[in-house]
Amino acid sequence: MSCTDPGRPWQRDSMTEPTTTLARWRATADRCADAIAVCSPDGSVTYGEARDHADERGRALAAAVDEPGRPVAVDVESDVDSVLAVLSVLCSGHPVILLDPLLPDERRDHILALSGARRFYPAAIAALPASATPVPEPGPLDPSILIFTSGSTGKPKGLIHSQRGWVNQADDGHEFLGLGPGDRMAVLLPIGFGAGVDCLVMGLLNGATLLLWDVRRRTTAGLRDWLDAEAATTAHCTPSLLRSWLGDLDADAALPALRLLSTCGEPVRGADVTRLRRTLMPSGVFCSWSGSSEMGNLAFHLVGPDRDVPDGVLAVGVPARDKHVRIVDDDGNDVADGQAGEIVVESGHLALGYHNDPELTAARFEALGNGRTRLRTGDLGRLDDTGMLHLMGRRDDAIKVRGYLVEPAEVETALRAMSWTVDAVVSANAARTQLVAHVAVAPDTWTPSPAEVRTALATTLAPWMIPRDVVIMTDLPRNERGKVDRAALPQPERRRDPEPVRGPTESALMHLWCDVLGVPDVGRDEDFISLGGDSLAAATMLAELRERWLVDISTAEFVAAPTIATLAALLDDAHRERVASGTISTVRAGSGQPVFLIAGAGSPAASLVPLARRIDGDRKVFGLQAHGLEQRGRADRSIRSAARRAVRDITAAVDNGPYLIGGYSFGAFVAVEAATILRDRGEDCAQVVLIDPVFEPELLHRVCGDVPQGNRAHKATRRLLGDRSAALPDRGVTEHADDGPTSQPAWQRWWNAVAMRGLVATAGLVRLPTTLQWTVFWDLGRQLIRRHRPTPYAGPVTVIRATTNPDDPGVWKRLATGDLTVATVPGDHHSMMREPLVAETAAAVDRAISADAGARCALRAVTS
User: Fold this and answer.
1) Does 503 score more than 80 pLDDT?
2) Which of 240, 549, 572, 681 is deepest in the core (most CB within 10 A)?
3) Quick check: 98 and 192 in contact, CB under 8 A?
């Protein structure tokens, strides 16, 4: 049922508008007594029931806590009982603090000690003995709710909000979000922190029905269907939650009743709005809503269904009710529209100050008279010519790099504009002289190297704005409020002060590396991979060396000399001895039992370096690559012949077994074939590790007959593995000519296919540009897998699969007839071999090659 008055539910003919939170709540509850106030999947309560309960429990609480003005802290969940407990405290005359259940104990203890609050659970409030103790009516400036800051940059601070302040917040909800009787308001924010409290107040003081869903406990599984069943008209969450939720939805997931969705707490991008229109809300209004613990609501940005979505980060919008926003310079003078400065807010509805901290209150809040206050926010922003407010980061975050003032927020914007970025945060290093970027990516889409990120930034940012350190992550750590927990961000690998280069060769190399890696300086003893380079960056650098020095250095040679000092020595030695076969190189030095890893089709041995460096212990790791890939020589024309060549390289490097052999992708098929050759010669292979091998359909049919149910997704897998663009074959994803429509004309596709057949037929005999050479060998590798007739192998085998590998693991039982273990690691075919997920892959390799039989049993237990 809805309120009897379709207008504002607190208004009556004989009364003025309420000026306190408590009066507004009671007026609304009286008018909407039969309407549902709060609903969760576990139950509901009407406004009338909530009013009566809160009044009765409020008197009991006033009797139990007889110190006037002492805050009462309540442990709250997103459920009906918690909301009733909060209303009871408000009706007791005590200020209320909402404690989130996921708060770390240290932070909760700090809040309780700082505030001096009495702590109650909802059940404890419900069990208090009844009392007839009268409760004094609060005034407009009396404390109502204490909001504590997130503590993401220090210990939480408590802000005291007045009774009239929350009335103003509720009026914002009515004016900007249109909240009123009949609305069914889905609150997907925990009610234990600021934005959740805002939703609670704006909904209940406007007569809406609150629909509570705790995403942290229930996840988003079933959320869309629940909102549909409940006919939600509005929904409120964080941008990060919205992105993860929308990623699981299809285009037909629209909620017919949903007229508005708002986000708060973080910047929101135009791509988020576009995705929302394609899924949940094709015709509703999106609202980006911002504020802080010191001021409550700051601004609202409404984007209707007919409005174009801007690129990049959305402006925070037009100022909220009674929030006069000024942009000032360092002297406190207003700047012109469009210019940046500190955001200052003047209002009669700001927080009353910091709890028990008069010095900080005096530093941030200034009384203006007539009940109005000025707040210096410490945020940088600008007002455009339409009156829209744009946030530009924190004033105290700005640092000077090479004499230039840099705003980390501007760098974050550039990072978030990149296709691979899910989220990003930029901060200063400990000395506040360099920028550090933590970039969250979606590994199943693409995992860039740090050098790749810096190079991309160089197309839009000045050199001094490019972070020296880039940390690639799968997600950013967040605190219980959903904000980035900066204290939990992993520190980049400590970089020593660069040792100056010596001589003209090292100096020239330093400048080349700076260009390729996107860094301002490089020391002569710094490692290329540690600086963020990958195999494509190495190939780019070595190709440039060929042009400048007319010296041909293979990636295998470079892996053995990965610093400027050692590479310079190679360049100065024009008559150096080359690797005898051109197919094997040391990718990690060590003295322990060696491991032989065979690279994927079209990939140099250097592509195995990230994995090799993550393997535990002091094992030496050899990398093997295709004959002719980097030095002229006819490519092997079968997996069996590639395996015979691998056996020659392996036995030349180590006189006798037992051998540890592994291979990635195409290399896995070569590795198991090499193991059968060694076995037939009476040699022992202690372990064969196959890293994400994927069957071509022809080979799968040859091994199994009909393609099993688990292998019907092979077209998608071909698309995942394939790349005929000018890029590294173990990298990005592009469509094949035979995988679907293409923009190329038919004759062009035919010519490309004929040209590729010719190049594959002569693979290794003609020197091609590096990326084309790799693509030719990749295409050859697929052909060899299609034609392969494998020999069953009876020794111990471990298959390490990416999460997206579509092959039925049981297929390998037909080829590995001995001791078979199958493990699954996070990521897809590419990202499992790149940071940060390569650490999981290396750990699985470690368990497989361990001499401890118990470790293999543990691996089986984990993967079963």
Assistant:
1) no
2) 240
3) yes
Q: Which residues pair with 303 in a beta bridge?
A: 286
* Residues 162, 38, 179: CA angle, nearest 5 degrees: 65
**Closest to 828 in 3D by CA, of 444, 449, 361:** 444
Is 1-168 a CATH 3.10.50.40 domain? no
Q: 580-738+749-864 has which CATH code? A: 3.40.50.1820
Interatomic CA distance for residues 326 and 335, integer angstroms: 8
Q: Please write the tens of the pLDDT for every residue from 526-547.
A: 778 777 777 777 888 888 777 6
Strand partners, 302: 287
CATH 3.30.300.30 fits 398-488, yes or no: yes
Q: Could you give the CA distance from residue 230 to residue 41 in angstroms, rounded to a whole number? A: 10
Place of tokens 């530009």: 392
Query: Measured between alpha carbons, how far is residue 339 from residues 348, 380, 381, 382, 640 in Å?
Result: 26, 10, 8, 6, 68
- The DSSP element (H or E) to which 536 belongs, if any, is helix 535-549
Which residue reads 């990149």 in tokens?
418
Give the angle 25-27-32 at the CA atoms, nearest 5°: 90
Q: Cα–Cα–Cα angle for 740, 744, 750, nearest 5°?
A: 85
DSSP string covering 173-203: HHHHH---TT-EEEE-S-TTSHHHHHHHHHH
Distance of alpha carbon 588 from alpha carbon 597, whole angstroms: 11
Q: Which two tokens stand for residue 262?
A: 């708002």
386 close to 299: Cβ distance less than 8 angstroms: no
Is-same-fold flag (324-393; 398-488)?
no
Share of the chain above pLDDT 90, in %: 44
List of residues 6+ apart from 133 with CB closer than 8 A: 59, 62, 63
Give residue for tokens 């407009």: 140
Domain positions in the chain:
1-168, 324-393, 398-488, 580-738+749-864
Token output for 828: 């897809």
Type of residue at 184? R
Residue 154 pLDDT exceeds 80: no
Complete edge-to-edge strand list for the sheet that includes strand 421-428: 421-428, 435-441, 469-473
Give the residues across from 400 on adjacent strands. 405
Beta strands in 365-480 (DSSP E): 365-369, 372-383, 389-394, 399-401, 404-406, 421-428, 435-441, 469-473
Global pTM exceeds 0.85: no
Q: Rounded to whole angstroms, what are the CA distances from 457 to 256, 413, 436, 518, 726?
A: 41, 10, 13, 9, 21
What pLDDT band is residue 852 in, cutting at 50, 70 and 90?
Answer: very low
Give Cβ neighbours of residue 221 (< 8 Å, ≥ 6 apart). Answer: none
Question: How many CB atoms neighbour CB 791 within 10 A?
Answer: 15
β-sheet bridge partners, residue 623: 585, 597
CA distance linking residue 353 with residue 364, whole number of Å: 8
Which listed CATH number (3.30.450.20, 2.30.38.10, 1.25.40.10, 3.30.70.380) goes with 324-393? 2.30.38.10
Query: How many Å is the maximal CA-CA distance in the chain?
Result: 102
